Amino acid sequence: MTRNIARWKVFVTRALPGDAIGRLRARAEVEVWPRERPPRRTELMTRLERVDAILSMLNDPLDAAAIAAAANLKVISNYAVGFDNVDLDAATRAGIPVGHTPGVVTDATADLAFALLLASARRLTEGDRELHGVRRHNWGPQTLLGTDVAGATIGIIGWGRIGQAMARRAAGFAMKILYLKRPSQRGAVPGASGLEARAVSLDRLLEESDFVSIHAPLRPETRHMIGVKEFARMKPGAILVNSARGPIVDQKALVLALKSGRLGGAGLDVTDPEPIRRDDPLLKFPNVVITPHIGTASRATRERMTAMAVDNILAVMDGRAPRWCANPDVKLRPRSPRRE
Ligand code: GLV
Ligand code: GLV
Fold first, then answer.
1. Using CA positions, which residue lies closest to atom 3 of ligand 1?
2. Does residue 82 have its Cβ closer than 6 Å to ligand 1?
3. Alpha helix locations (H) across 148-293?
4. Measured in angstroms, how far is the CA atom of residue 138 from the centroid of ligand 2?
5. Which domains, ranges and CATH numbers included, belong to the chain?
6. 126 is known as an active-site residue
């Protein structure tokens, strides 16, 4: 019996490292967006209307309107641990599982966060810029004086996988560790054993920390959770590190805290918006280190993310839920392929 069943159509919104896309091509019609810039809204929408699966990036907004237009869509596979670019409720209502890539991103992201902490504390980029910018630089006993890391207190906001990986690094640098569970986390947090760390309230964390590092997901309850009031509570001279999502910090309040000199500096891998605008006031502060959202950007990590994102699509193609699913309670949309 010939069953005239069309192969799945899959849209991959950027070229990805590794060879896992080959496994997808073996079973589906795959279109890979060839450019570095994300597809524009209209470009995204025309594809969403006809594909069975999308492998999306954190800067592809899949809001309710996009999901409503995606009549054939059976799975969203997001190339990130975070999924704040996807309207999860809309996807769940439409019967679309949302895959993501937790676990493999943990160490790379914590490494980058700790690099930002060290770079801010010891004014790495300021020194680097000086050497690139002037012909001669004299060593001086008061030049580029920074902040000690050993013995300092770090306050970790978000005690998930990445927050705890940050804590392990901090422990290696003899820091005292305070942490705040995610607002959505309840009860005991698994995996925290073996670390000397104290759970505290947000106020306490802000008051006692020399470094405050954010490792929480962006949710309605974490949006702007660090604002004017919170900066005012921080120790004078404290340093903020954000490798999670830009909008968790009220960026106007951050600029004010830097302007007033209350904040000693900031190490940011994420901003609001991204990419940061050329004229953003944050770029004017010498004591702000900014990287372009590269927390997971090690070759091996990105290749593992590709494999997981592909596996999440193949699972749904085979009638199962994605192995790594952000909305595990979703009732899958009938997945018989379109007949042509
Ligand atoms: C990166 O920001 C991720 O969510 O994986
Ligand atoms: C610094 O380089 C020192 O020798 O103290």
1. 80
2. yes
3. 161-172, 202-208, 228-233, 251-259
4. 14
5. 8-104+299-317 (3.40.50.720), 106-290 (3.40.50.720)
6. no
